[in-house]
Structures are given as C-alpha cells and as structure tokens.
Amino acid sequence: MADSHTPAAEAHADAHEYQRGSMQITEQASTFDLFIVLAKWGSLSIAVLILALTLWFHPGGSFGAAFIGAAVLAVAGFFALKSKPGAAH
User: Fold this and answer.
1) Measured distance CA(7)–CA(43) in Å, rounded
2) One of this protein's Pfam families, by short name (predicted)?
3) b or e along 27-44 (b: 16 or more beta carbons within 10 Å of the residue's beta carbon)?
C-alpha cells in the first residue's frame, strides 16, 4: 500500500501556510551586508598588495616607490569605498 504522506503533499501543505512578506530577513540582510563589506575591503587590500609587490620587485623597482604607490592607492580606495551617510538599503 502506498504511503499517503508523500513529499509533494507536505510541500503543498507548507505552501498554504506561507504568507508572503511575513518572514523576518534581518539575519539574511546582515549576512549580505557583511559579505559586501568584506568583499569591498578585501579587494582593496589585495589591489594594494599586488601594486606594492609589483612596484617593489620589478627590475629597477624600489621599496620607496612601492610604499608610496601602495599608500596612494590605499588612501584613494579608502575614500572611494567608505560608507556614505544615508546609503543604507
């Protein structure tokens, strides 16, 4: 004899209980915001590191030029990426 509790029947019953727009999404929104912040600042960090290493180790390169170039990129990136007031979604 077949089981009357099939997965499709349970999913259908759950679909009737769902009310659109009633779910709390604060955890998902916080996770998304954290991901965006880490991706943004992580990308800047990697770009600064790659620029510094490239300027330092290319033929004729120097640590001074690498430090100055990386510092300029870091400062410009900081001002470009910092959160703007009222920019929340």
Assistant:
1) 44
2) COX4_pro_2
3) eeeeeeeeeeeeeeeeeb
